[in-house]
From TrEMBL:
Listed SMART domains: AAA
Family, per entry: Belongs to the ABC transporter superfamily.
Keyword Transport included in the entry's annotation: yes
Any matching Pfam family: ABC_tran
InterPro entries assigned: AAA+_ATPase, ABC_transporter-like_ATP-bd, ABC_transporter-like_CS, P-loop_NTPase
Protein name per Swiss-Prot or TrEMBL: ABC transporter ATP-binding protein
Length: 296
């Protein structure tokens, strides 16, 4: 049974379509990263899942059931526009959240706050953006939820805090938890996500593991030869999208999939060197954004 399952989930505001026919499945014990530019529908998706807003069309099931007060207690949530009570200390705020959830045990919250180096004795209006974000993260995990939904969780965190948070996230999932998060920080998604979905103009345009996305992405291989070689020698090779003559002895090829045939072809000439630009998640994201730009 999937932890999250949506079917044709759609949300419109008047004539503006924020989300279109989203079929999303998040499995138990995984970290699912949702990528997309501003306005792609990421925050709308997360708000629909926690029942803050209602869909125009489609269905949502969490833990195999429709949203209910009982299910809310199994979910932790960090909004992208976190609002805190300025006159409360961090400890007071966590106690307030615990009372609302009927979960007064703050032991997990205290452990995570210590790991993130968060001072819970300071009032929230005295906290920096990064420390306010830490407090939001702590409250999302404080009641040991089975599912945590996070909107831009690394926003404002310094590198050390990010690293500790990512370590905690993996420990949480290894312990049986499930995470769905959105992010603009592509390196974060690449580092912690098991699977990635890319939203563009309210549509899920691709979904796969990070490893698979990178394996099927466009890569650049540059071959340097001991004598002049024509770029036309590399045309028609399976997977080669383009071969460009950089100089008389240097050829740059854009290729997807396996590169064995391309390398074998290059080896027929006096090959001196091969350099490869391996795609990262940012390259993949830009590729899909450009490919689907006409849908905006």
């Amino acid at each position: 049974m999937n932890v999250i399952s949506t079917r044709q989930l759609s949300k419109s505001y008047g004539t503006t379509v924020a989300l279109r026919d989203l079929d999303l499945e998040v499995r138990p014990g995984e970290v699912y990263g949702l990528l997309g530019p501003n306005g792609a529908g990421k925050t709308t998706t997360l708000r629909l899942l926690i029942d803050v807003i209602r869909p125009t069309r489609g269905s949502i099931r969490l833990f195999g059931a429709h949203m209910s007060p009982r299910l809310r207690g199994r979910i932790g949530y960090l909004p992208g526009d976190l609002v805190l009570y300025d006159r409360l200390t961090g400890a007071d705020y966590l106690g307030f959240c615990g009372a609302l959830r009927e979960h007064p045990d703050l032991s997990e919250a205290l452990r995570l706050a210590k790991r993130l180096d968060l001072d819970l004795d300071r009032r929230t209006d005295e906290l920096s953006k990064g420390n306010r974000q830490k407090l939001g993260i702590v409250q999302a995990f404080a009641h040991r939820p089975e599912l945590v939904i996070l909107d831009e969780p690394a926003s404002g965190l310094d590198p050390l805090a990010q690293r500790e948070f990512h370590t905690y996230l993996r420990e949480y999932v290894d312990g049986g938890g499930t995470v769905l998060f959105s992010s603009h920080v592509l390196s974060e998604v690449e580092h912690v996500a098991d699977r990635v979905g890319i939203l563009l103009a309210g549509r899920l345009v691709v979904e796969d593991t990070v490893t698979s996305l990178k394996a099927n992405a466009v890569r650049e291989l540059t071959f340097t030869f001991g004598e002049e070689v024509a770029a036309a020698s590399f045309s028609g090779i399976p997977g080669v999208q383009a071969a460009v003559q950089v100089s008389g002895t240097e050829i740059r090829c854009r290729v997807t999939g396996a590169v064995g045939e391309l390398v074998r072809t290059a080896a027929r000439f006096p090959l001196l060197n091969v350099t490869s630009h391996e795609p990262d998640l940012e390259d993949i994201f830009v590729h899909y954004t450009e490919e689907h730009s006409d849908d905006d």
